[in-house]
Every structure is written in structure tokens, then in C-alpha cells.
Design brief:
single chain; 315 residues; alpha/beta; Rossmann fold; Dihydrodipicolinate Reductase, domain 2; 2 domains; nine-stranded mixed beta sheet; six-stranded parallel beta sheet; 9 helices; 15 strands; globular
Length: 315
Amino acid sequence: MKKLGVAVIGTGFWGKNHARVYKELASTKLVAVCDVNGERAKSIADQFGVKAYTSSSRMLKNEEIEALSVCTWSTNLAKEALKALKAGKHVLVEKPMATQTKQAETLLKTAEENGLHLTVGFLMRFIPGLQHIREAVENKKIGELVCATARRVSQWPERIGDVGVVKDTAIHDIDVMRYISNEDPIGVYAKTGSMKHRKFEDYAQIMLTYEDGKSAFIESNWLTPYKTRTLRVTGSDAIMKLDYITQELRIEDAKENRSPRYLWQEPLKLELQHFADCILEKKKPVVTGADGLKALQIAEAALRSSAKSRAIKLR
């Protein structure tokens, strides 16, 4: 079986997990890692027996590398992803993909012009329970979708952040709402603020509205002393509750409460396996560059809504 030659740019908190998973997958061959911190790059490279780089431009000249993950700080994601695409590499860029929608649009255009795969690290889509919710909504197994509520709260992350909570964490749930409803919201109203961390917003409440009257609510912060990652989807006939951390799914209707059993699977491994399969088998990815752009546009609209204290129309 042909192995896909892969690399990772950015070997911090999350990038080192990408490197580990690529090393574990049967369909990928980890060729190199890159980080501006030479000691960190060498440490991860030595751990997995690959070459270390401190310059992504130099690494991209390595012809063994066909695809890569970009796991840098958010403000560098678009720059590094664009360099990789221009070098002819397929790219998985971590969320939020870019700090501005214009950068994201450039990535989409470059990938399309060069016939390359561009996907975004929206990890939640690969959790089996969320896929079950999407299928239940699509086939009306819970009746008509009424609303969905997401909670993504925790303490300030250990890693150094360079964007606020909306683009760093709430963007996951913005994408989830698009994924399960299979449509884009028509409006957004948000309240954000900084309670402890003055440089960026550290809490956000976001409401998304849809054409047929349903709505979605997203709560995200870096203030809560314990980590919570949940989704509650309310239908006219049943309610579905998902805990992203345990991957437990609970379904409640008029007759019974039940919890379908799923084998716990590492979402990152599912995501990177899918990325490799799409390239090797020339398939369309579950998460496209366009999905990343849409989520970023909604996140920016949420920040504008909070700044102007009014709802923002999306179309």
C-alpha cells in the first residue's frame, strides 16, 4: 500500500499530536516536522525518527512531502498554509484557518487553481455521536429541529493564544451548527467580553437564527474552573445530548431515555486518516476549505454584533 508522505508545521501543544498520529497511521509516512523553536522541533523529530526544520520554506522543498498539517499560532496559519499550497502540497490547516476572511479566500482560490486538497481542523465532525445527530436531524428521527445549544467552557488554555475565544473555540460550535442543520444561518447576535484577559475576549454568547425559525445558542469561555464540552439538540419529538469528552450520546423522547453505545475513537486519528484517504483515493473531504471560510465569516459577524450591540444579517 502506498504511504502518503506527510509533515507538520508547528510542533507545540497540538502539532505534536498531529505528528504522533501520522506516525501511527498505516497510510501515512511522517517525513519531517518544522518549528521556529529549534529545540522543540528537534525534540519532536527525534521522538519520531524524522527530520527537523526551523524553516518551512526549506522543508517544503522536500519532495517526499506530499501533504502536511499546519498547526502554528492562529495568526500564522494562513501564511504557512499558503506557502504549502504554492509549493504543491495538500494542506490540513488548523482552525480558525486564518485571522481574516480575505486570507481564507486566498487559500481556497490557490488550492483550487493548483488542484490541491484543502481541509480545516474541525475535529468535532469526526466524533461518531455527532455524525449520529446529523443523520437523525436529516432524517427527522427527532421530528423537526427546534434549536441546538452548545457549551464549550474551561479555564484559560495552557498554550499562548493569539486570538480570542470566538475564533479559537466557539468556531468549532459554529461549524457544528452548520454541519447538523446542513444550512447556513441568516443572522447572528452575540455578546462577548473580557473578564480576566484584557487582550482578547474570554467569553462569548452567540445566537444564530435560521430562515425557518429555528435557532442555535453557543456559550464559550476561558473562565469556568472545569472543562465542559456538550451539545444539546432539541427536536419536536426528541432531545439528543452529546458529551464531546466522553463521546456519550443520550436520546430522550416521550417513551424512553436511551444511550446508544459507540466505541470511543480518537477524533484526531479519524480526521487525519480521512485526510490521507481523500488524497490517496481522490475523494472530497468531509470538511472543505469553504466550510472553514463560512465558519470564519460567521465568527467575524459575531464579533461585529457584539461591538455594535445589534444583530448582524448574514444574507
